[in-house]
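We close this part of the discussion by returning to an individual protein. Part of our work consisted of pairing the sequence of a single chain with a tokenised description of its backbone. What the numbers capture is local backbone geometry rather than side-chain detail. The amino acid sequence and the backbone structure tokens for this protein are reproduced below.
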Amino acid sequence: PTHACCITPDRTSLCGSINWFDARAASKVDPKGPLFEIPPGETINKEFGEYSGINEMIKKRSLGEIERINLYSGMEFPHTSCGCFEAIDFFIPEVNGHGIVDRNYSDIAINGLPFSAMANF
């Protein structure tokens, strides 16, 4: 698997099932388990939330598939997802803006794609 989720105090998992407090508690209960602390390392881009330590761990845990992530950007080096997310944010170049489509929306989104197609990118 090439997905690796990074949870912070102000950023839950994309699926919404694990928040910072739950992840922190789980890492203390089972220190060798799948939830663990990641030292952020050096700040690369504070605005986008890119940190050297997080990049190193994401690269390791994604088996080299993902080398960089920005915690706070959906456009440049976005966070990976396991597929359990409830909505998708997509860019609409014609208006230089974003659209959001909910998992339960069964029609075609404004970009011409159904949720299922966007979820498989």
User: Anything to note?
Assistant: The radius of gyration is 16 Å. The mean pLDDT is 91. Residues 1-85 form a domain with the Ribonuclease HI; Chain A fold (CATH 3.40.970.20).
